[in-house]
Amino acid sequence: MKERLMDIVDAISVSGREKELLSLIEKKVTPSAKISYDVMGNLYIKKDGDGCKSILLAVSIDSEGFFVNYSFPEEKIRIAPTFSVTDYSTIVGSKLKGCGITGTVCSEKEKDITLSDIYFEPDEDQAAPNIGDHLSFVSSVNEEEGYLLGRRVGIACIISALIDCINNYDVHNTVTVVFAVCGIPGGRGLKTVWNTASPDKAIVLRTLESTKELPILLAKDGITLSDTEMFRKAADMLSSERIDHTLGAVTDTKRDAMSVNLSDIGIPTLSLALPTQNIGKDSEKVYSPAAEAISDTIKALIKINY
Amino acid sequence: MKNLYGTELLRELCDIIAPSSAEAPVADAICDILKGTSVEITRDKVGNVVALKKGNGKSDLKIMVSAHMDEVGFIITGIDDDGRLSFATAGGIDGSVLGARAVKLISSNGIINGVISVKPIHLLSPDEKKTVSSANDLRIDIGAKSKEDAENFVSVGTVGTFASDFVRFGDGKMLRGKAIDDRFGCAVMCDIIRENDNTTFDCDVYFAFTTREEISFSGILTTTEQISPDIALVLESTAVADLADIPHHSRVAYTGEGPAISFMDRGTIYQSAVYDFVLKTAKSNGIKAQPKRFVSGGNDAASVHSALGGIATAAISIPTRYLHSASCVIAEEDYYSTKDLILAIIKSDVIQLSEVAKGGNR
Predict the structure, then answer these.
(1) Which among A1, A224, A256, B354 is most buried, taking Cβ atoms within 10 Å?
(2) Within this chain, do residues B33 and B147 fall inside the same structural domain, yes or no?
(3) Are residues B50 and B188 in the same domain?
(4) Is the pLDDT of residue B362 over 80?
(5) CA B120 to chain centre
């Protein structure tokens, strides 16, 4: 499992600048898959089936990062996070990479750190970045006591499972997998997928801060409800196939499901979450059996005649 | 107004009182200014004005250039027994720029003058001197003697704006006025349409004068869905702080250095394909432009960017000091740099524009 995730976790995918990871995903899928991009930069991989329905599997693949917003000779390089930071001390010392350079987040102060205090220090002999360049946290994957550890390991598990689905599963209905951009800034990338994919139903995958050790079918996801019929059929299918799972409901700020569900054409959605701890931190971790189970869960869910 | 161009046209447009939802006087003025040109003008039910300049058919691409007609202002929420008016702001206005400001309200009898009442310094307690009043604590004084007297002029729901003159100052090339955000964009578009009336572009270009940006970024959505553009250039004003006591990295942009191009703001993260193209176009045409150097603000571009199936979008903003106040300040040369840049983009090679329209990111 660790080996399958390493290059996914390593690839840069700062919100709005996800091309490196999307290109990697492209390389990993079978050459027969139908690949396209939309104007937002979302990647679509379509697998035709004989059924009359069109199912969308959607996941936002972007990660937390920074844009360089001030870079002049002899002055400190200033960076702006693409995500909400409540305590800047937690990012000081983080290693960053992007646009061909590496370096460290530093602070002018030790206490009461604000955005104005932080800056980026390139590693020795590295050129300064340009304004508008993006920088990603450096991350790697480890395994320890049944858990996969490392920043972005949760979303990497979902990406890996979807690649597995594209490459190895037979589909009855036509299935389009969208690897979407700009999820962290309010699920923006997924707002537009209806226009390209026009699916009948959608399954939205996400990580969820939880200590549970099984994939979770979400009846409520943020401010959106899963479609009742899809939810019931999914729960029945997973039970009959003896795939370990649990049911849940969550009220958080994640907007991905809402972006798909309440799009211009209105798409019935079902949310599936991979329980993950410490999301967005170096200490992020996923229970390995849950990571394995998410693949089987997807396989079962796309078999359902919604 | 019809014979005015450039910043003299801007002066006249800025003087119009037109907060969000009351943009009709600006729309009327724009329609009058463009009368007699070759553009096809339409007005929709939410007040947007669209001027279509048909292309020569060389390309099917549709370019939308937009600016909003509304300005920040006030809406009356109640009338006190003494005739003073409670109000809410329509758009983001900080309490520190409100006290003792002259305002104008739009009544059925015409424009009513008023002033935002505030205690004079002589009567403030030491604690009061340290605090900034919000709109909730302030009242508008229209000189009425009583509630009944005030009701002869205004009612709950009456709207208004700051009242301030448009002036040149400094070397005569710094401009100060209310409503520069975003009458600047409206004036630039009027200039481009009229100055190029005998020129045909390769693409259809839609010049959209939109409503309600200051309260909801909503007018532009209607227009975007009607036009379904391939490329959107959103003309805006961005708050800058190029002042002595502000660290350089927090100044956002500099007045006089050309329009600020956003790679990210509080509303969205722009496609790198579009951001790069706009800056390169400026450079290759010798037009001043600068990256926006601080992540702040948000505007119509966020609505456009993720509309329909996603639209290749750029936010091109004139650096503006004291934004959302009675005294917005811009450099005159930035007006003309912005106009030159928009024209250069529209006139770009269609193959290049087709690539930009695909959007996408690094």
Answers:
(1) A256
(2) no
(3) yes
(4) no
(5) 33
**A248: closest CA of chain B, how far (Å):** 30
Whether B113 maps to a domain, the answer reads yes
Please state the ipTM of this predicted complex. 0.87
B250 dihedral zone (left: phi>0; alpha: psi -120 to 50; beta): alpha
Query: What pLDDT does A19 receive?
Result: 96
Q: Which of B40, B151, B195, B213 is catalytic?
A: B213
Where in chain A are the domains?
A: 2-63+141-301, 65-137
Minimal-distance CA residue of chain B relative to A15: B269
- B250 and A116: CB-CB below 8 Å? yes
Residue B74 forms contact with A (CB below 8 Å): no
What integer best gives the mean pLDDT of chain A? 94
Catalytic residue flag (residue B40): no
Please state, for a pLDDT cut of 70, what percent of chain B lies above it: 100
Range with the poorest average pLDDT among A293-297, B35-39, B153-157, B245-249: B245-249
Residue B361 and residue A67: Cβ atoms within 8 Å?
A: no
Contact B315, B234 (CB under 8 A): yes
Size of interface A-B (CB pairs under 8 A): 96
Rounded to a whole number of angstroms, the distance from the CA of B249 to the nearest CA of chain A is: 6
Q: How far apart are CA A15 and CA A61, in angstroms?
A: 8
- Taking only the tens place, the pLDDT of each residue in B95-143 is 999 999 999 999 988 999 999 998 888 988 888 888 888 888 899 999 9
Q: Collapse the DSSP code of B331 into the 3-class scheme (helix H, G, I; strand E, B; otherwise coil) and give the result.
A: strand
Q: DSSP string covering B10-41, please?
A: HHHHHHS--BTT--HHHHHHHHHHHTTSS-EE
Partners of A102 in beta bridges = A97
Average pLDDT, chain B: 95
* Residue range A35-78, pLDDT digits in tens: 999 999 999 999 999 888 999 999 999 999 999 999 999 999 99
Q: Is B350 part of any domain?
A: yes
- Nearest CA among B155, B125, B276 for reference residue A16: B276
